[in-house]
Design goal:
15-stranded mixed beta sheet, alpha+beta, 35% strand, Alpha-Beta Plaits, 2 domains, elongated
Length: 297
């Protein structure tokens, strides 16, 4: 199967279950909202080594937010309820409350349950906190130096899907990079999904376990390293491939992850020099979701 002359490999992406939350961060200006959203989703590329997986879902104009100000939807994900509760409290408390003019609202639909994040944060007000209602939502108003920080009392969480992925293989590194950036731009238009790696592009694809060091849970995917294609006997790279980047996607639902993969692959296949689209899987050892690339189309 090919798209614009690019081979779509007959393989699948192996994804896994994860707990997901979805928040709306607003502020006085679009710039300030973006700063807070970026801060709250930092150090969150992969739960292999980070305390969470997180990213910016998309921009929301003032006409569509509860407080009539510009905002950004962010997603924060973790393997379990307790860990996600901790990350929400830490990231809202240290990444959003500390940012100028911000407020934060729950925007996850059909949640499995709710966590009392805002209720916990209100105690930062040292007894001066107040309770408000905005757009039918229970809000805690916490006085801070610059005014009041507004936070919804409860935030929803539900079972989501993490680790949807595909590889972009091209003639050169720069062609693969241009294709990867085009893919990320296309994925940003799919609500309910994020690309948690820096800039949405994965430079260092990994594998489960390690061949040489038993103290590592994950290590470099040597079969997909362009600089090792002459050294690794079972390389997955053709000799003419000079650049590879991976895109990893987390989503609220499997269908949203599939949609993001589809749109990202279509965008990547419009770039000259792209030769093949593949995906990462671990023989069923990592997760329960197997997303076949060709079946996306």
């Amino acid at each position: 199967m090919e798209i614009n002359g690019v081979k779509i490999k007959d393989t699948y992406a192996e994804a896994f279950g994860i707990k997901v939350s979805r928040l709306l961060v607003t502020a006085a200006t679009k710039k300030l909202a973006k700063i807070a959203a970026t801060e709250a989703t930092g150090y969150a590329s992969s739960v292999i080594g980070c305390p969470a997986e997180a990213g910016i879902d998309g921009y929301v104009p003032p006409t569509e937010t509860p407080d009539g100000r510009p905002g950004y939807v962010i997603m924060i994900c973790n393997s379990g309820k307790k860990k996600l509760d901790h990350e929400l409290l830490e990231r809202i408390g240290m990444g959003i409350l500390t940012a100028a003019t911000t407020a934060v609202f729950n925007v996850l639909e059909d949640e499995d349950e709710k966590l009392k994040i805002g209720f916990k944060l209100k105690f930062f007000g040292d007894g001066y906190e107040k309770e408000l209602e905005i757009d039918g939502r229970k809000i805690h108003s916490i006085p801070i130096m610059s005014g009041d920080f507004l936070v919804e009392s409860e935030f929803g969480i539900k079972n989501g899907v993490a680790g949807g992925n595909f590889f972009i293989l091209a003639d050169t590194k720069m062609e693969a990079l241009v294709a990867a950036e085009a893919a990320v731009d296309a994925i940003h238009a799919v609500p309910g999904t994020i690309t948690p790696f820096p800039g949405g592009v994965v430079a260092s694809g990994s594998k489960v376990g390690c061949n040489s060091y038993n103290f590592l849970d994950a290590s470099t995917n040597e079969k997909m390293c362009v600089t090792l294609k002459e050294e690794v006997a079972e390389t997955d790279i053709d000799k003419d491939i000079g650049g590879i980047f991976e895109i990893v996607i987390d989503g609220v639902t499997e269908e949203q992850v599939k949609s993001a993969m589809r749109e990202g692959i279509k965008a990547a296949c419009t770039i000259d020099g792209v030769k093949e689209i593949s995906a990462g899987n671990f023989g069923g050892n990592l997760g329960a979701y197997k997303i076949n690339l060709r079946e996306l189309f």
